[in-house]
Design goal:
Elements: H1 27-41, E1 48-50, E2 60-63, H2 65-68, E3 79-89, E4 93-99, E5 106-113, E6 115-121, E7 127-133, H3 134-147, E8 157-161
Antiparallel strand pairs: 1-2, 2-3, 3-6, 4-5, 5-8, 6-7
The chain binds zinc ion.
Amino acid sequence: MTKILQKKSPILRKQAKEVPVKDIKSKKIQDILKKMSAVLATQDDGVAIAAPQIGVSLRIFIVGGRLLTKKDEETRPDMVFINPVIMKVSRKKQKMEEGCLSVRWLYGQVERSEKATVRAHDEHGKPFTKGASGVLAQAFQHEMDHLNGILFIDKATDLEDLPPEKMVKDNQAAND
Ligand code: ZN
């Protein structure tokens, strides 16, 4: 089973490398995508994951289908972002509660742009652009940070350690 690396792992601090577009359909990259989806699905509170979090220093992140699914809709598949670039962020920022699958079990407040637009390649190598606001925009910014060796604890204020047994159910934050 794929393990999620924790904050002391040096790979989480590295600048991840671009994926050559011609390699996206290769078994190697497709296997990495499968592993990322599988491990994200094991995390009840996980909304997204970046490749360095499973020990792969490549510019890939995925957003869990759960976050993309609207009410009364069937769960959507995970969305793949390869070589993502932030095209635009709103000047308006807001403090948001944040956690990370690689920084168990800390939570804190991070200032994030309310809106963000990302350009990336999908799992077939096709380029696309996706705009988002709120939690999805927050996830884009958090995952981009992962690809640049940054963890949310570098930016967060009011950090608190909240292991699951202490976590108040209706106060659960998103983790990515
Ligand atoms: Zn994270």
